Amino acid sequence: MEQTQYHGIFDSHAHYDDEAFDPDRDELLNHISQNGVCAVINAGCDLPSSHEGIALSQKYPFFYSSIGIHPHEAQSVTQETIEELRSLAQNPKVVAVGEIGLDYHYDLSPREKQREVFEQQLLLAKELSLPVIIHSREATAETLTLLKKYRPQGVVHCFSGSAETAREIVGLGMYLGFTGMITFKNTKHALEAIQAVPTDRLLLETDCPYMTPVPYRGKRCDSTMIALTAQKMAQLKNLPIQEMIDLARQNTCRLFGIEEGALG
Ligand SMILES: [Zn+2]
Questions:
Q1: What is the pLDDT of residues 38-54, one digit of tens each?
Q2: Please, which of 77, 91, 152, 240 could form a disulfide with 132 given CB 3.0 to 4.6 Å?
Q3: Which residues are CB-neighbours of 155 under 8 A, at least 6 positions away?
């Protein structure tokens, strides 16, 4: 964990259900607010992680959860899976359907099944009036086609696309989430994307335990390290770091319907 001099950090995308946190999850989450983190959204990837995210949200007031099936797991989805997601969404700490989308890089599920499950969950989100958290990898054109078709509220998380794609997503009324990837030496597109879109569309996220920002690469990421991502984003937007953190928190609260006053 990082000691940060900042406050009011909202990590809009984390995976605290991941086994990487098994040795010290409670220890970490019990102390995270003393290190500047005021809220976290845990992103579900399958039914077990969606359940686990909700369980953690019952334990920690600052913890929220999304429920959904990642494109990697699309293959296993049946109508019962969608029914279970629908019932999980009744929990008041569930703020989104996600992460859902298309992953044509790993292709762990057949593409046709990925599209079908993505569309089922876009419809579910609409029915539940919940925003979506989108995962899109090497599938920009098809993701955009489906976003235009269903017009969800939501965020494209861990954005690494071009400025042009960024403008198009923002033009649909959506948000872009950025991880520690923007601190990596070889990152270029994501930086141009940040500069291309208005500040009120930017979210900060860790995707922890993955995407650890420089200089901690190789270590396990957690929400306190987001300050380094905020620093890079602030620099690109010519803003003080704390102001960037505050703006990203306000954006996150607006998107996910969370009262800022409810945060510690
Ligand atoms: Zn994720």
A1: 999 999 999 999 999 99
A2: 152
A3: 12, 13, 131, 132, 133, 134, 174, 175, 176, 177, 203, 255
